[in-house]
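Quick start: what a row looks like.
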Amino acid sequence: MKGALSFFFLEAKTLLLGNGETRRGKAVAVCCLLAVFMFSVFLALRPPLRGTEAELWDKVRAAQSWLWAERERMNIASDQKIDPWRTGLIGVEWSPITTTMGKLEAKRTATDPGWAVLFFKWYRTLGLREGDNLAILASGSFPGFLLSAIMAAEKMDLELLVIPSLGASSWGANLPDLPLTAIIETLRRGGFVRVVPKAATLGGAGERAADLSPEGRAILMESLESSGIPLIYAGSLEEIMAQKWNTLAAFSPKAIVQIGGSQANLGTDEAVLRLEPGIILPEEVTEAGNGIIARALESGIPVIHMLDVRALSREAGIPYDGRPKRKTPGQTSGILAIFALAAWGLFLLCFRRWTLEKGDAGK
């Protein structure tokens, strides 16, 4: 690398001091050199996955393939135009258990196995170690995020408490034959996850599925009964939030992952909408609303907030609605853009497309 840098600066100096006859060719040479240099930096910043992270990425991808095969066997597989990477984690646009509208592109982005690698890194950033307690609260809207969060935690042998909210926005876990609890059970049967949810809420309006039809509520209730997962239910959202918090407090998590838009998790105060996605440390916020994540932050528990997929994707360096890549997630340094602009400016300065010959000035 040191030799390449020396050669680059020598070529730049020669270009700037060279004569007019050779400047054009040297400009092209230097620009090519800059391109090679920037590409090398890009590869250094986004290396292929290795070791534990590569194993995790591959296992998530294998779990998705298993789920896809199970859905084919059940004759409920998605059209491959809807789920081009065959993840098995994309639902339908509408069903009786659909609570709100959602973006297909966001749901596909959430299935990228790179999120599992990122969760793994986030857990270590928060200082989590084998045996530490981690709680995961998730709506049915982003089963891709939930799978990645669980598998990364189990890779680190963390103790898990999972409380899902079963309602889902469009394209999420909204298949009547395969709601969120059934997805988790299917993956457990395949040997890809170990966790059994501690309890669940119905999700939707008021966390009581008040916005669903009787048919939709019956589907969710049946899924809970068949899985044996206890239901958190009460006459009001506030009572459900209190029950959910008591379950969390008894578990004493060192961190909480919050996925999607469960009303109990977010609360009803619009202040929660101003929270940035990703890791939120208690000392970084003064207002977080009145939901579960606000109480967690007030209690000194950090939260990984998985909402606003486009912003998360941009910050994480994971392509939005793009083909999953088996590379380390992360942003490419802005220095590459500076080098590119410098190269282009140098090229325009030195690459003259015409010259004014003697005698032309008087014409």
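That is the whole record. The first strand starts at residue 133 and ends at 139. Residues 39-44 have pLDDT under 50 and may be disordered.
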